[in-house]
Amino acid sequence: MLEIGALTSLQTDKKSASVLQSYKVRDELLQGGTSIEPILDFILAGIIIIDEATHEIIDLNKAALEMLGVPKEYVIGKICHNFICPSERGKCPITDLGQEVDKSERILLKAGKEKVPILKSVKKSFWNGRRCLIESFIDISDRKKMEDHLRRMVDEWQKTFDIIPDFIFIIDKDFRIVKVNQSLCMALGKNQEELIGKKCFEVLHGTSEAWHNCPYKKTLATGKAAVELVDDPRLGTLLVSNSPIFDENGNLVGAVHVAKNMSEIQMLEKELQQKNKILDVVAANIHAGLVVVSRDFRILWANKVQEEKKGCKLEGKLCYSIFMGRDSLCPECPVEEVFKTGKDEIRREVFVEDCGGKSEWIEIFASPVKDENGKIVAAMELVIPITARKEMELKLKQYSENLEELVKKELKS
Questions:
Q1: Full set of structural domains in the chain with CATH
Q2: CA gap 305, 287 in Å, rounded
Q3: Core-most of 105, 135, 262, 412, by most CB within 10 Å?
Q4: How many CB atoms lie within 10 A of CB 55?
Q5: CA angle, corner 219, sides to 205 and 224, nearest 5?
Q6: pLDDT digit string, tens, across residues 343-392
Q7: Nearest Cα to 46, choosing from 141, 121, 140, 136?
């Protein structure tokens, strides 16, 4: 990864070049006691001349004044300590502590004591026979802001990289791990320092060479992404993908390796298959029709009982067409009422007649099918034949009426 300092320092190359150029001419100019204003005011770098013994500010150029944010008469004659430099009296990095300041990051105090990050160089020289300190500096506030921004981006990227539950690492052409996320570290019981620089097959599989079905071997051979399902004795069943990384010349230099643990997914799939088998058995043996209808009234699924009754596959057909032989919705359709009202159950008793002239009574129970957000996406119909019950009810009614007539006759006689 490119270092942040190396990246952002490129932004100050032009300003730094101006500072370096000023170094070459300033000693010759100052030896003759020439005022720096007409000569150095065009330079982007701030330049301040300070008396070495007293630390009084003798002169400064326009760029320095703009950075300080004060008029020139307010600066000339002032002591640099705690005025433009945060160092205390007697602790000057140059004259008291013997430090060399050459393109070093320092702080400049502006008016109101605002601190401005600068890139600063200080050289000793003479001006009108006086020993002086020549300070040259440029404002690097923008660079520091960009560094902070890039640092935050790197931190956020690292946090995201580490919280992903999949095993992720970056490898070079020689199978050596360059970067690894926390999920894989935890799975292996190792920290990042123990894994970086090691060959992936050594730490993952405990082998001395890559597996025959290693997806990275395919990536190296083809230059393309590769996916492979791998059964690892230590980590379980893994769905492994490799995405190649190329340099600016198009040469393959490594890959991003992502491994998703499929063991839990496979276990859930088996559980789901088992539950589906149970549901299929129940649906096939309830001796009633069971149908799931979409919001556009097409059949999404029907059980074996309902399909055998109609003698055909029902999926995709319009419910009112296949069941009732209609071109439009049935009057008082229970499925339509479910979609409109959202009620948990709608019950209807319906007398139906199919295309072959066979008629029967059925009882329909319609209920909503909802997604994970509670939105109704379909309706389920349970269709129970009740012709025998309706015939019995009719006989009971006739018997009751006959009995009532007999009682009336007996009472009259």
A1: 4-145 (3.30.450.20), 165-261 (3.30.450.20), 280-392 (3.30.450.20)
A2: 7
A3: 135
A4: 20
A5: 145
A6: 999 998 888 776 556 788 888 899 999 988 889 999 989 888 888 888 88
A7: 136
Do residues 138 and 119 touch, judged by C-beta distance below 8 A?
A: yes
Taking the CA atoms of 303, 306, 309 and 311 in sequence, report the sign of the dihedral they define: negative
Helix residue spans in 44-140 (DSSP H): 62-68
Structure tokens at 344: 């948990």
Cβ contact 224:242 at 8 Å: no
Task: Name residue 101's amino acid.
Answer: V
Q: Could you give the CA distance from residue 254 to residue 177 in angstroms, rounded to a whole number? A: 10
User: Is the pLDDT assigned to residue 282 strictly greater than 70?
Assistant: no
The residue behind tokens 């329909």 is 364
Cα 297 to chain center, whole Å? 38
**CA separation for the pair 13, 210 (Å, rounded):** 46
What confidence category does residue 3 fall into, taking pLDDT thresholds of 50, 70 and 90? very low
Whether pTM exceeds 0.85: no
Phi, psi of 215 (to 5 degrees): -65, -25
Angle (CA) 62 113 121, round 5°: 50
Q: Please list the alpha-helical segments (H only) found in 331-373.
A: 334-341
Token digits of residue 150 = 């890039």
Question: What is the rounded CA–CA span in Å between residue 64 and residue 70?
Answer: 10
Q: Taking the chain, what is the end-to-end CA distance rounded to the nearest angstrom?
A: 113
Distance CA(174)–CA(254), nearest Å, equals 8
Burial class (CB within 10 angstroms; exposed 0-12, middle 13-18, buried 19+) of 156: exposed
Adjacent-strand bridge partners of 245: 254
